């Protein structure tokens, strides 16, 4: 139960606020940022939830804004934090970007959203597609809708009734992002797989879908044996349409989907992963006058797969100039704003390897700090029709009372995560050969 919702700038000034109950004064908003600074000065970590003078402060940060909820009661903090994330997602879908300017330009619509998404401190409709049916941005049209869409009062609040398509289709994307950190000795220090299942549903009526994956826990609970590889997912999160009780009982993912595009679920795998794309580099520095790089890239996945749009960022000294490049494939350009050069390869086939060389001039006076600076090499890529975890969609059943036939399409993609880094040794005057773990 929430007493007040506010959106603040980074200076703690409220841009917009909505009070749902009278038990918390709006003056507590001004205390939020000083409390944050006080916690930081004491050397403690600022948590999303904390209490001061009997008031619970729950917040998230998005770009240059704080989304803040205040309550005096014993509130379900996780629920309110989730609501704030849903609020930010809805505002982004309405205004494309959530920032100070978009808040100031859309006060009226945001107040309407505050009133529809929460009632007397209790979260209500948080599905953007349903809200957009009766809270529109076309304020100049004097159209008044007396009744909200049936979905608002339905048991299925994320889908409207009466949806019709001439061709019924479902598109399902299984996307896995790989985060990895490799040290200078070639050992993998950290690796994880972050996966998501995204769907585009163009189905008539009120269909029920059942999705089956090669889930290790499901095979163990039912006593079945998997024909191929099975995976054990961690930190599984579902869209609100999934029947959680059914999943907990027999691991069946059963749901009535929203119309259009949405994320059905996300998961994490902490199983060790070898580098899919390996990059090793050596550098030779010549008395501070010039510096030369030799970079080798190798694809450590099967020949039948291909990585698209590979980008390799190799760090160079900030004062490097006069770049010259020679690559056996792809193109190379200097990015001085990133203090790196970028090797781009449009397609990198499995088990293939390529070499490139780079030459830079340096100031005549050598800076010892520049030599010691060793930023990691980062890699970006996308591998279609491939999942590093081995997750598979075993079936996708679509049941609707009219009995129509629907076409399900499944696509797999593996890509780089937010942090795919290789701290390859870049020693002055050496050329190390580093092998993957």
TrEMBL record:
Keywords: Cytoplasmic vesicle, Membrane, Protein transport, Transport. PROSITE patterns: CLAT_ADAPTOR_M_1, CLAT_ADAPTOR_M_2, MHD. Residues 167-423 form the MHD domain. It holds the Pfam family Adap_comp_sub. One of its GO terms (cellular component) is clathrin-coated vesicle membrane. The keyword Transport applies. The keyword Transport applies. GO terms for biological process: intracellular protein transport; vesicle-mediated transport. It is found in: Cytoplasmic vesicle, Clathrin-coated vesicle membrane. It comes from the Eukaryota. Belongs to the adaptor complexes medium subunit family. This is MHD domain-containing protein. It comes from Botryobasidium botryosum (strain FD-172 SS1).
